[in-house]
Here is the input.
Amino acid sequence: MSYTFRQILIPPTKYSIKAPYIMFPQFITVHNTANDAPAVNEISYMHSNNNQVSYHVAVDDKEVIQAIPFNRNAWHCGDGGGSTDPNALKKGNRLSIGIEICYSKSGGACYGVAEENAVQYIAKLLKQYGWGIERVMKHQDWNGKYCPHRILAEDRWNSFLNRIKKAMEPNESEQQTEKDDDTMKFTSTTAKAAVRDYIKQAVDKNLIDKSWLEKFDNGTMTSGDFEGLKIIIAQRSN
Ligand SMILES: [Zn+2]
Here is the structure.
């Protein structure tokens, strides 16, 4: 993952202009900014004007910035006040999360990285919502506008979607981590404190090396380690 995420949310006083309706999002709509500005500039421009133009997220080569909460609508699809009826055609403005990919005007390396960050971020959102790739729309789907212009001009919409699908698959190292992750988990801070106390007492009594406490504190002690440690402590306590 090569981007950082942050929120620069519009003040609620601007909701009436930029995000007037409560929304239960159903789709993600992809845009190109048709500009060469970084995400932070795009977002601050949206903050500063009073046009009924808005979107939820801007992505560039370094960061993903959210400006509008996903439970409010934004004006980015050109399909008017639209509808919240899932069967209606014009529902982009009322049911979709708008994502702007920066630096699309001139393209180049910054755009390439921004687009890849968008792929990764959209994959993450789809997984979070439990959605499939069919939820990802282009601005063009809602009102015919030639947007995301660069992806369309380069005839890459299908490959863009395929990259998102690919990014949704757990990669090998994640699978490995899941399989190998046997580190100790606690249901409460009290339980954790009790185990730490037990280890610390054993260290204080010189029954075990203090590196065990460090291992516990940095979260790398596995359940297997702890089972073994309990046996050692029990043996040496006698
Ligand atoms: Zn657009």
The longest strand covers residues 27-32. The first helix runs from residue 15 to 18.
